[in-house]
Amino acid sequence: MSNTIVNIIDREDPLPLYLFIREMRHDGDRVMFVSAKGDADRIPFFVNLMKLDKKLVDSIVMNRKSDELSYELICRTVIGHLDPNQHYLVNLAGGSRYMTLAVQRSFARFNADFYYTKTRENVIVNTIYNDSIYDDDDVVIPIKHRMTVGELLAVNGLTNDANSPSRSPIRSVEYTLSFFKKFISKTLPASDYDAITQLRLHYRSRHRAMKIKALATTGLSDRPRVDHLEAMLAHLHFAPQNADELSPAEVDYITGGWFEEYVYNIIKERVKPDDISIGVHISHKGTAHNNELDVVYSKNNQLFVIECKTGVDSNRMFNEIVYKVCALREVLLGTTSKSYIFSLIRDNDGRLRQVARLMGVGLYDYSNIVEGVPFS
Fold it and tell me: Which helix (H) or strand (E) holds 32?
């Protein structure tokens, strides 16, 4: 006998719905969505995202926004769509608490099993709602599926390139470690740091490969030359893929991308994520802006995003970074994601860490990164 997998649409936290369908649905099962009127647009989104057969999808949508304020109206609407000959698997993780209570009461009159998807613990709990609370009959089902970075971003409605081969480091772990050590040891001459700064200010945004000789002697177009460029490349033992030019990716690496790759490497080694990408571009339908995530990884179906900054010039600049990271999480990435800032600034008095913590952002500064990051 086939089942009907039931979920309540929740715009703020779509993960329980997505994972419940992934874990519980089998071939031939129907899928039912229960939705407030204002969230009904999410139903076709999930149908397309999960490639569901539209012939096997049922929807129960409240007729008016005011219906969501009436327990009896919710119950009557839901019951009017149910079939006594069907077996329902109902996920109660979703929607408002008021909606959830009404849905549970409505399905309790039919052949239904009730579940609650707990994404933080990565389990689905099967519960029998009856008068007995002493028979310990709750069943905890571990969630087997592990989401990729691209999958987690897509569930939040974000177009992304996380699965592109270009979202991987361009230099070896060993070389990036040597670059990191040279940078933090301050053994490079001042002219090398000046060259890196000039390269970042004037050439980081270009999209074509640039001849090294031209960069070092005359500059390109109306942009100034980069003094000591060739010496800096020699000191860093940086060998371009094409001997006489720098690609846009190589310019990005020299001017700060190396730190992103360093963070990527230590996360991969110490955290052992399920999936990890670097420099992921994301966009949301209906908005003109694209955003780039420096390092993003998934572990146990949670999304972790790291903003990498080699340095921060002022408290004001740090605050702007924190606000950006916080806004990105709340508006695009979902409230269940976790955000961090990794930077080589020194937060000796802990003030910057406190500012970040108040905004729900973690900070790892020079002392953590150079002396050993306490990852968990």
Answer: strand 30-35
